[in-house]
Amino acid sequence: MKTLIIYSGRTGTTKRCAALLAANIGADSCDVFEIGENIPQIADYDCVAIGSCVRMGVIDKKIAAYLEKHKAELFKTKFGLFICCCLADKVSEAITKNFSDEFMDHAAIIDCFGGELPKDKIKGVDKLIVNSIIKIAKTDPTFKIFEKIIPESITNFASVLKEE
Questions:
Q1: Are 85 and 54 in contact (CB under 8 A)?
Q2: Residue 115's closest CA among 157, 153, 164?
């Protein structure tokens, strides 16, 4: 099974998740591309996985545009969508906000691979926001964040894509 993995991220988390997904599927049968690279035709693959970071509740605009542009092609093949999101309580909201009912109906799987808050890779206003999120999470036990990638989600996602 030949798999195309397309991703977009800002701090390296989504890139690592795409690489882990490829390893779980079988790296020799996967081609991994960052959005903006010369991405091959969807028709050349048995299945496709598309992933994005979530920032302020929104997926990367290049991924959103790619999904819209290639919707018809995607709906003819098996595909899955994944996000990397640090705000555990906002995952469902991020999925429904960013993926239409059409995508929800056609996707083999849509999941969150967790997230990271790498303060050393974040600058400016984003760093202030991340520091605030961490501070809130430490003082409010009801405010849940992901501080790491969730390997089980990636393994499950790969299993669904590999199913015949």
A1: yes
A2: 153
Secondary element (H or E) of residue 133: helix 124-139
Give the number of residues written for the chain.
Answer: 164
Q: Encode pLDDT of 82-92 as tens digits.
A: 999 988 888 99
Identify the three-state secondary structure at position 5: strand
* Structure-token pair, residue 158: 């790969």
Q: Is the pTM of this model over 0.90?
A: no
Q: Which of 132, 102, 104 is nearest to 117 (CA)?
A: 132
Nearest CA to 110 among 147, 136, 144, 78?
A: 78
Q: What is the pLDDT of residues 47-84, one digit of tens each?
A: 999 999 998 889 999 999 999 999 999 999 999 999 99
| List of residues 6+ apart from 158 with CB closer than 8 A | 21, 24, 25
Question: Of 30, 56, 23, 55, nearest to 44 (Cα)?
Answer: 30
Q: Tokens for 142, please give them.
A: 């009801």
